[in-house]
Amino acid sequence: MNQGCPVCAEMENPKNQDRWIAGDSECALYQMANIALPGYLVLAPRRHVVRWADLRQSERESIERFRGLAEEVLLGTERVRKVYFLSFGEICPHLHIHCFPRTTWMADDGTEPGEVDGPAVFVHYRKALACSGTPEEVLAMVRRLRSAFPMERNSRK
């Protein structure tokens, strides 16, 4: 754990149990805090890694396994049309992936058919859906995702 790193702190914080989805010895998957968007997830290696090139092979494999399963579950929900996977490292240097579900209503919200601007959707809805706490609809998605990861559910460390 790297002191001062928000991702390291999130993975070690027992208070985020309601948003915790799954983890193994290599990576962790949890619901993004303070955004009222069910299925907006963060996937990160447990080890404080800054660059993709610094990941061990086992970390890459674990991240891909969790990413693929999360995408499958999210795309299996009624309103999710696409899942964006974004990694910036600008504010928080700990390598992490935002798994952002683009819903049907986002695609239909003021855009021309076929003209969805993914980065603009991401930025807009992160701000528009900011909240305090964890709404029940978000917790319901967390429970659904947990059921897809039965072996890893209790692997916080």
UniProtKB/TrEMBL annotation:
Domain HIT, chain residue ranges per copy: 16-103
InterPro entries for this protein: HIT-like (IPR011146), HIT-like_sf (IPR036265)
**A single GO molecular function, which one?**
catalytic activity
Identify the stretch annotated as signal peptide in this record: none
Taxonomic lineage per UniProt?
A: Bacteria, Pseudomonadati, Nitrospirota, Nitrospiria, Nitrospirales
SUPFAM superfamilies named among the record's database cross-references: HIT-like
- Species name: Leptospirillum sp. Group II '5-way CG'
Q: What is this protein called?
A: HIT domain-containing protein
